[in-house]
Amino acid sequence: MENIEKKFDAEQVIEDFEVITKNVGRIQEETLGKILQQNGGTEYLKQWGMNGRTDVETFKACVPIVCHSDLDPYIQRIVDGDISPILTGKPVQAISLR
What we know:
This protein is elongated. By secondary structure, the protein is mainly α. The protein has a domain at 10-64. The chain starts with 9 loop residues before the first helix and ends in a 19-residue tail after the last helix. The protein has helices at residues 10-21, 24-39, 43-47, 56-62, 68-79.
């Protein structure tokens, strides 16, 4: 088998990058929509008035931007063994403390 080395083409890398990032906003909204569909019934989203709605517009209007410390009480409940849908629609299987 012949070892063929490909020459690095910076212009091609830039072009490829531009193609895959052209619709990044739409892709992010689609990804958020999928996450909301899987987790729409969680306690966390219900507290912000989502009430099972999974559309991106409602999420943006209802759910504030938070930091990790805001989520600590929910995470601690999961660590303590609570398997109810707190932050995720499915039970958390493992948590890394690193």
